[in-house]
C-alpha cells in the first residue's frame, strides 16, 4: 500500500476508534468500557487499536479533549458585551451545559480519573479544566477593564470558584437525569442566576 494510502487508512481507523470509544464511554463510563469492545465497535482488531493508541487512557483523553474544545468554543461564542456581567457569565455557562449535556458521563468520568490515575493524566485533565476557567477569567478581566468590577477584585479566585461550580452543577444535573432525558436546563438556569449573582456581588464589594 502506498505511503499516502497507508496514512489515510490509519487516520480512518483512528477516527473509527474514537467514534466507538465516545459512544461506549458515554454509555458506560471509563471503567466499564473495555478495549475489546471499543475495537469491536470500530470494526477493527485490538491490534489495529494499539497501532493507533498506547492504551485506554490515551483514547479517553483524546475523546475528552475533543469534547472540551467543543464546550470551550461554545462558551467563547456566547460572550455578549451587550449584557450585564451576571447575564454574560450566565449565558456562557448555560451554553456550555447545553453543548455538554449529552456527554455528561464522559466529562464527569474525566474528573474521577483526575484523582484516581497517575500524575501525567492528572495534568492532562487539569489542563482541559483550565481551558474552561480561562474563558470565564477572560470575561471577568474584560468586565474589570470596563470598570464593571473594581481593580482589587480577586478575579483569579472567582474564576476558580466558577470552574468548580461548573462541574458541581453538572454532577447534580446528571444525577437528577434519567437515562433518556437531558439536563433540566430551566432548573440549572435558575441555580446559575443565584450562584453567579452571589459571586459578582462579592467581586463588586471588594
From TrEMBL:
PROSITE patterns membership: HTH_TETR_2
Transmembrane spans: none
Keyword line: DNA-binding
HTH tetR-type domain ranges (all copies): 11-71
UniProt cross-references to Pfam families, sorted A to Z: TetR_N
Domain of life: Bacteria
SUPFAM superfamilies, alphabetized: Homeodomain-like
DNA-binding region(s), residue ranges: 34-53
Chain coiled-coil ranges: none
Any one GO MF annotation of this record: transcription cis-regulatory region binding
Protein name: HTH tetR-type domain-containing protein
UniProt lineage: Bacteria, Pseudomonadati, Pseudomonadota, Alphaproteobacteria, Caulobacterales
